[in-house]
Design a protein that fits this description.
single chain; alpha/beta; Ribosomal Protein L15, Chain: K, domain 2; three-stranded parallel β-sheet; 6 strands; 11% strand; rod-shaped; ribonucleoprotein; Ribosomal_uL15
């Protein structure tokens, strides 16, 4: 028998733990003080704070009935006459390349061609909305609208 191998036949009793609720002593695993240490505590949901930070559409001003839908970009016949040659194909992509339109968030917007000005060149219009006056002017110049 060695000194290090001796064990007690009756080990010490552990001291009785105190603390309200449970067997964990004093603060019962709740840390110290504050909202989280209290009985019946309720923590505000974190998601609610994010929702509150999002801007609302309150009081959109005098144009409250204005649509959220993206409006068509307007191009006149006068600018088509100036930037396109005879026999050219006028598409939204061609209008961007000609510098008459700009991409919005890297997307080519809808285009509507209005009959402002006159057209003498024969052009083919594709993928664009067109007013009735502009359609008549294109057809009168010998062009087509698809």
């Amino acid at each position: 028998m060695q000194l290090h191998s001796i064990t007690r036949s009756h080990p010490n009793k552990k001291a009785r733990q105190v603390g309200r609720g449970g067997k964990r002593g004093k603060t019962s695993g709740r840390g110290t003080k504050g909202q989280l240490a209290r009985a019946g505590h309720k923590v505000r949901p974190e998601m609610r704070d994010f929702i509150k930070r999002v801007p609302k559409l309150r009081g959109r001003g005098k144009n409250i009935f204005q649509s959220f839908r993206a409006q068509s970009e307007i191009v006149s016949l006068k600018s088509i006459e100036k930037h396109f040659s005879a026999g050219a194909e006028v598409t939204p992509d061609a209008l961007v390349r000609a510098g008459l339109l700009e991409k919005i968030n890297n997307v080519i917007p809808k285009v509507k061609i209005l009959g402002n000005g006159s057209l003498t060149k024969k052009v083919e219009i594709k993928g664009c909305l067109i007013s009735e006056a502009a359609r008549r002017a294109v057809v009168a110049a010998g062009g087509t609208v698809v």
